Structure formats: structure tokens, C-alpha cells
Q: What sequence folds into this?
């Protein structure tokens, strides 16, 4: 957010409804980060009224993302080129603008670029201007960069706020920078004045460092996402510029092989996410991002890996607000097989460093960013090491690691990273002598079961994946040296495109090239594995499977896996039942410190055979629920057997099939095969939901695939 004393807060925004034109291939002889010869191009252009008050200002055209290369023109003049499909960048358009007039803005987009191999992998590669772009008008002397760091004292109570401000302008000019601290509620914090003066150097830039002690700030974590603002005021040449940056107080440490957040051990119950949404491709909206964070939070997920590229700036802002630990991934994926941009071809180091620099520049002040992840599954070599070294040199406050590498390859790594270890591998990982040096993470594990033919035959076989998740976390929860694990992956990857050629489109879902690897669908419908995730990842749990009422109470052992939340902050709703009917209900507050256990008492009701518990977060989310039986519990008797005599009546309508006989009525939806109701006598056996599967009949697309692979149908 920026403002000056002679400008409005709002700057001009370039609309998203660009005109698209094709054109003949251009010729370029330059090498390196310049436009390549390519047929895979498109032109986006639009006339924009540029305010007259932009005169005398430096004007930048900011892009949050263009896949994969962007050659930028203003009024027919080439003003810059950028490649790297997922990182944000600025193009200085000052010299080509005509303030107070209509200006022609144009971008020639290249989907295939010299370094484009780095931006391809297990995801959709969709060319275009898919994220926000806008103009920023700046005074001649202005803030160019802000870096915020926070350090906590030995008790993790008081902090030192450090803000480094880079100012650019005319060489030799003087400037003053003042900083103030505000809470998210807009209240100004009481702290010593932060003020420094500086001079622009011969290189056109000057840097000042502001610092102030802060007494007992509210710390940021995924459980307690407390945020603040630094408001900076730059005064130079009679102009005042105000810049505000949001951040959180936090400290990340490795202590004897254990990752500590604000001095406390944390567990990352994570998932890998692609920045894709089936109706929108990569061009997500606020509703898309909020849908993901809400669904993830409700599933007790507290960490996100931005596989395999840094995700939208707004998505990370929401992670700050809602509370997620983020592995921010520098974009390069599966490059080891490309001879030009492999990890060992040092001629390509510029491409790795460009992506690292732009990822760090955009996201370094986001408190949610837990660590920098150097690419995905690309092996080890000098290019990846250069990216790692850059991150460590320019951000000493966070861990960094190279995908799937360990101390043997990179002795300076902050994590040993693994993909798909077996249970035996996990146990060895937990007890390795390396755990006394650095923690381990599993950035892909377990992989969602996705054999479509098997799921069509019996969707319930995905329960085996739930068992794999449970087996993984039975080892991780007690292992202090394993920070966490990230499920592959969050969502299915189908696309709901309208391309006339419908080959590859699933006839049922309407999605193109669906891969069935997510815990939610590509348009974010919840799948059965989602509930496995919610239970295994729950920060509240009990080992009890039954309770024994005694002296008017039921004692239940409760474990609190939270790192910063006392269970007394949650509401526990309890209910006693007999024969499925409620006897009593109430609410309890259970005092149990983070990372500890307690025996919690609940009232026992005479004649009860069941105790139900549900823990509710202060924000209204249901965190965990369980049903505990007493020794007196008897399962419901089987429904009475109805006489088999009598006719079976079949009703067949356009929407449904209904089968009735001797007091039994079964109704099915003809389109989906779903049982809509099943009633025997006066008892409901099923009230909607299951699909009647008679053990045969694959979808036609699967019949073709299975047939080609030579399997029996």
C-alpha cells in the first residue's frame, strides 16, 4: 500500500479483459534471458487512460505472474522482457508513458522460453497473464524495498523489531525515514521512535536500518496468527511517501535437531497444493483462495507446500491471516533430465538465481513462510546449491533445503527431505544420528490412491490410504526430530475447459485429464479421504475406545497435540445416550496445557451405554469428535425379517427406480446410481448417500484404457 501527499491511494489498474491477437513469429538473436524464437506466442494489448498526475513520477508496471515469458511494450516501445512463469516482477515504463493521454499497453507472451523447462512438471502449464497486473506511480525519491526481521529474547517474550529500508532517487539527495508500529486493530503500539536519515549513493540507492524494542508482542504461529503493521514515512525533497508492510513476530530455530517455533516444538500436518482450480486454471479468485484455506483449516491441516512454484501473493496473505506454516517453493521441477537447464549446467545459474531472488523479494516479510524449498525432485548440483546459498545469504531467519537432499549432498541444509519413505524408513529416520543435527521432513507422503478402475469397482478401497496416513503419523507424532509430512496432494488436477475436442474429458465429471490424486476434487468437493486427514491430523485425540462409568463420572484420557493452545480455549460438548437416545448433554472446558495429556472427567448418566465428545474451536470449527461405548453397550438388533412371500414391485421413472416388497422400499437415482433412501418397516436403513455397486461396469473411458493395457474387464 502506498500514498504520497500529491496522489490518491488508488493507482491505475490494467483490466483483465485484454484483446488477444495472433501474429507472425519474431526473430531474436540474443541469448540468455531474452525472448526466444517460438510459434507458441500470443499478444495482449489494451488502451489505458494514464492520469496526468503520473507526470514526474517513476511508473512501474507490476505483474504478479505471466506464464512463461513476457515482452512488454508501451506505445509501441519495447520497455522490457521477463521470463519465469510464477514469480512477480516490475517493468519500468516511465520513459514510454504519455501521462494525461490514452496509452497502448501490450505484452507479447511466450509459453516456451529458454528456461521454461524449470516451470514445467506435474501440473498444468497454461500460458498467459493469469495473475493481477497494475501500474504503480512513485515519487522521484521513494521506498524501493522493505525487509522486516523480528528477534525474540531468551524467554520468547520481548522482541526487537528491525526494519531495513532501501530508498532510491537522485544521487546525493538526503532523506528521512520514520517507522511506527500498529496492531491489526489499527491501534498504535508504544515503542521508542524509529527514525533514520540517509543519503542516496552514486548507485542511486541508500539504505537505513530502523530498530526498536517491543515489549510482550503477540507472537505469530499457525495457531495464533497475530499480525502487525509497520508504517513507514519517507520524507525527501518536500514529498512524503507512506508505505505499510504487514508482518508477524516469530522466531524459527533448530535446536539439537528439533525445529522450534517461538521456542516450542511444532508438528506440520501438511499437504502439497497446486495453484489450480478447475473452472479457472491458474487464474484464481479471492473465493478460490478462501475456499482452500477454509477447507484445509477444517481438516486440521496446518501447513502447505506450494508445489512446485510460489503461489499467489494474496494466497500467502490469507495464510498469514488464517494461520498456516508454508514451505515456499522456488520454481524448478524435474530439470535434471534437461541438458540445457539441468542442475549441473552452470550456464543456467542465472535462471535459478532469478527465480530465487524474485521469490525472496516478494515473500520475505510473510510470517507464514516457514522455509524456502529449492525446487522439486531435480537431484543435486551447483545450480540448486547456488539457489540455496542465495537464500541462506539473504535470509538467515528461515531454514532452507533442496528437494530430497540430505547432509551427504548439502552439509549446510536445514532439513533432510524425503519423499515416500516406507514405515521402516520412517522409523530409521526418527532414530538416525543425524536427528541430533537437523530435523527431517517428508514433503510428499503418503500419495493419494488414484487407480481409477479400482475406485470405480469399490470406492471404499481408499480407506487403505487412510490407514497409510495413520501408520505414517503414528511414527511422526512421537518423533521430535521429524517436523512433519505433506500429503501428495490437496486437490485433483482436472480442468473444466470448453475446448471443442472432448477427448480426455471424463464423461461423468466433465473434467479434462483428471488425475484423482486429491483429498478434494478439482472443483473442491470433499472426498472420503478428507475425513481421514481430519482425524489423523487432529490436535486433540484420545486413546480410549470405551469408558467405564464409576462414582457418577466417566474418565477419558485426552491428549493435547497443540503447540500454543490450552484445551481450555476449546469447548468440549458431551452427550450421554442409551439405545441411541439422548439422556443428557452439556459443555466442559478441559484444562490441558499444550503438548500434554490429562484425564478428563465427564458426568455419567444412569443407564447410559454411550458417551459422545466433540471439541469446538473458538472460531466455530469442529476439531475432533469421538464415540465411546460402555461395557453395557449392545449393538442394535437386526431389523425384523419380513416374509419373502408376495410380489416385488418395480417403479421406473425418468429420474428414479423404486423397488418395493414386503415392507421394504429401496429408491435409487437413475443418473448417479445413488441410493436415495432405503426403509424397512418403520426403520430407515439408509438415508441417502451410498452408490449401489454390483461389482462390474467401468466408465467407458476406463474401458478403453484397461483394454489397451491388456487387462481383463
A:
Amino acid at each position: 500500500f502506498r500514498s504520497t501527499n500529491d496522489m490518491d491511494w488508488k493507482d491505475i489498474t490494467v483490466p483483465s479483459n485484454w484483446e488477444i491477437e495472433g501474429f507472425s513469429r519474431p526473430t531474436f538473436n540474443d541469448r540468455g534471458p531474452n525472448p526466444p524464437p517460438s510459434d507458441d506466442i500470443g499478444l495482449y494489448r489494451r488502451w489505458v487512460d494514464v492520469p496526468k498526475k503520473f507526470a514526474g513520477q517513476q511508473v512501474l508496471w507490476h505483474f504478479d505472474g505471466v506464464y512463461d515469458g513476457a515482452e512488454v511494450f508501451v506505445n509501441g516501445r519495447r520497455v522490457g522482457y521477463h521470463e519465469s512463469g510464477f514469480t512477480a516482477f516490475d517493468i519500468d515504463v516511465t520513459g514510454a508513458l504519455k501521462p494525461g493521454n490514452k496509452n497502448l499497453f501490450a505484452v507479447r507472451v511466450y509459453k516456451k522460453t529458454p528456461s521454461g523447462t524449470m516451470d514445467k512438471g506435474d501440473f498444468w502449464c497454461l500460458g498467459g497473464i493469469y495473475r493481477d497486473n497494475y501500474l504503480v506511480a512513485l515519487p522521484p525519491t521513494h521506498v524501493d524495498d522493505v525487509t522486516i526481521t523480528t528477534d525474540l529474547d531468551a524467554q520468547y517474550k520481548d522482541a526487537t523489531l528491525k526494519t531495513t529500508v532501501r530508498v532510491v532517487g537522485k544521487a546525493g539527495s538526503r532523506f528521512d525515514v520514520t517507522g511506527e508500529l500498529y496492531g491489526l486493530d489499527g491501534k498504535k503500539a508504544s515503542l521508542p521512535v524509529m527514525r533514520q536519515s540517509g543519503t542516496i549513493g552514486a548507485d542511486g540507492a541508500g539504505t537505513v536500518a530502523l530498530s526498536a524494542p517491543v515489549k510482550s508482542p503477540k507472537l505469530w504461529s499457525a495457531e495464533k496468527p497475530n499480525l502487525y503493521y509497520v508504517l513507514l514515512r519517507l520524507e525527501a525533497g518536500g514529498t512524503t511517501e507512506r508505505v505499510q508492510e504487514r508482518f508477524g513476530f516469530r522466531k524459527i530455530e533448530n535446536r539439537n535437531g528439533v525445529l522450534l517455533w517461538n521456542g516450542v516444538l511444532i508438528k506440520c500436518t501438511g499437504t502439497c497444493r497446486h495453484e489450480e482450480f478447475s473452472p479457472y486454471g491458474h487464474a484464481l479468485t479471492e473465493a478460490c483462495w478462501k475456499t482452500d484455506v477454509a477447507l484445509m483449516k477444517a481438516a486440521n491441516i496446518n501447513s502447505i507446500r506450494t508445489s512446485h512454484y510460489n503461489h499467489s501473493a494474496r494466497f500467502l496473505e490469507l495464510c498469514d491471516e488464517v494461520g498456516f506454516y508454508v514451505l515456499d517453493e522456488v520454481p524448478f521441477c524435474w530439470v535434471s533430465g534437461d541438458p540445457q537447464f539441468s542442475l549441473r549446467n552452470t550456464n543456467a545459474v542465472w535462471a535459478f538465481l532469478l527465480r530465487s531472488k524474485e521469490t525472496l523479494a516478494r515473500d520475505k516479510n510473510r510470517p507464514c513462510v516457514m522455509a524456502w524449498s529449492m525446487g522439486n525432485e531435480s537431484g543435486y548440483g551447483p545450480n540448486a546449491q547456488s539457489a540455496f546459498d542465495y537464500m541462506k545469504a539473504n535470509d538467515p531467519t528461515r531454514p532452507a533445503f533442496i528437494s530430497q537432499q540430505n547432509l551427504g549432498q548439502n552439509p549446510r541444509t536445514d532439513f533432510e527431505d524425503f519423499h515416500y519413505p516406507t514405515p521402516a524408513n520412517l522409523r530409521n529416520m526418527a532414530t538416525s544420528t543425524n536427528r541430533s543435527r537437523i530435523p527431517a521432513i517428508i514433503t510428499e507422503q503418503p500419495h493419494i490412491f488414484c487407480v481409477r478402475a479400482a475406485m470405480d469397482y469399490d470406492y471404499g478401497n481408499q480407506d487403505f490410504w487412510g490407514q497409510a496416513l495413520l501408520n505414517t503419523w503414528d511414527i511422526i507424532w512421537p518423533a521430535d526430530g521429524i517436523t512433519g509430512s505433506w500429503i501428495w496432494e490437496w486437490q485433483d488436477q482436472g480442468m473444466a475447459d470448453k475446448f471443442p475436442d472432448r477427448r480426455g474429458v471424463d464423461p461423468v465429471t466433465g473434467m479434462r485429464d483428471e488425475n484423482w490424486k486429491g483429498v478434494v476434487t478439482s472443483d473442491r468437493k470433499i472426498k472420503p479421504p478428507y475425513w481421514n486427514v481430519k482425524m489423523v491430523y487432529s490436535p486433540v485425540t484420545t486413546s480410549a475406545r470405551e469408558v467405564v462409568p464409576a462414582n457418577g463420572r466417566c474418565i477419558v484420557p485426552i491428549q493435547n497435540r497443540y503447540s500454543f493452545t490450552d484445551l481450555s480455549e476449546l469447548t468440549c460438548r458431551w452427550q450421554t445416550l442409551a439405545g441411541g437416545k439422548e439422556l443428557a448433554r452439556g459443555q466442559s472446558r478441559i484444562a490441558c496445557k499444550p503438548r500434554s495429556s490429562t484425564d478428563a472427567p465427564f458426568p455419567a448418566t444412569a443407564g447410559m451405554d454411550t458417551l459422545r465428545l466433540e471439541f469446538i474451536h473458538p472460531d466455530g470449527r469442529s476439531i475432533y469428535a469421538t464415540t465411546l461405548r460402555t461395557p453395557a453397550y449392545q449393538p442394535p438388533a437386526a431389523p425384523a425379517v419380513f416374509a419373502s412371500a408376495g410380489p416385488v414391485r418395480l417403479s421406473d421413472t425418468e429420474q428414479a427406480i423404486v423397488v418395493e416388497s414386503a415392507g421394504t422400499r429401496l429408491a435409487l437415482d437413475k443418473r448417479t446410481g445413488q441410493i436415495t433412501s432405503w426403509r424397512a418397516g418403520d426403520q430407515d436403513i439408509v438415508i441417502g448417500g451410498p452408490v449401489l455397486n454390483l461389482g462390474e461396469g467401468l466408465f467407458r473411458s476406463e474401458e478403453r484404457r484397461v483394454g489397451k493395457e491388456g487387462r481383463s474387464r
